[in-house]
Amino acid sequence: MSQRKQAQLKKDVSSFAKADNKAGILQLINTIVPFVILWILAYQSLSVSVWLSLPFSLAAGAFVVRIFIIFHDCTHMSFFKNQKANRIIGNITGIITLFPFEKWKREHSIHHATSSNLDKRGTGDIWIMTVEEYKKASLKERLTYRFYRNPLVMFGLGPLYLFCLTNRFNRKGPKRKERLNTYFTNAAVAILYSLLIFIVGWKAFLLINVPILYISGFLGIWLFYVQHQFEDSYFEDEKEWDFVKAAVDGSSYYKLPKILQWISGSIGYHHVHHLSPRVPNYKLEEAHESTPPLQKATTITLASSLKSLRFRLYDTKNKSFVSFREVKKRNQKVSIKNPSFEK
Fold first, then answer.
1. pTM of whole model > 0.85?
2. Share of the chain above pLDDT 90, in %
3. Alpha-carbon distance 105 to 112, whole Å?
4. Of the candidates 285, 220, 218, 286, which has an alpha carbon nearest to the alpha carbon of residue 253?
């Protein structure tokens, strides 16, 4: 795509980067209210059976994903027209989802500025090693990476690590505003949880809230993972990296059933979001449908997205993700041709 066409594409999508306060308020109502109702129903159902309560908790967890999308838009200052309103709602939804507003805002802005850039990995993204890096890594580094990339670890332990550790502590040397906001979020979560425990008891609280947090964490990590980890995803070194290509070719269009698209806040239109982060979630579909070049983005479905589970390393030579097994087979072929080859 020429520079002129890229500029035109960004201009076309930027026309949708306008917040609609009425749409934002409506989304708050149809998201927060059902979540609260489901939480109450989960509690009421405990008097009958834990198993009757569980479906309500899982449904509430799905709504937490939608609440997170509102939080996410607020960090981009795109959910409401007023920045103060974005910060207020962003902090409230951050407390519900256990994400400190200022900390995540900074990390996510870095993610957008460096997505698909091989020389600027490490902040706000999932750990990715190239084939070359993996081959040169020590045994300890390889084992650590394989442990991290194991689906049972990433999606099983990932939510626990995210909510209990990553989101609860500041990085080294944060600015005062970011540091205090993390403290504020932690204190607010502690007060909210203490109040709920006082009202329903600690056993009921755990039986309700643990499934909510786990399913929301699992779904959130999966959505983030699958929309950048598809077979022919775009990655380049700094000197070759291009913002528009990173957005359109390095982010997928996750085509989900309507109900899942709604519950995930249309984040499946990830290529649109990366091209113009100020487009609010309630306008992503419209932007996609109104901009023909964006419809050529890599499309993945629920079925095809499962293939991404085997993607572990990025092959810079063939411009694609590969599995550990594929790398092992290649090494074996090289060893047969050249016995002196060292793995």
1. yes
2. 86
3. 11
4. 285
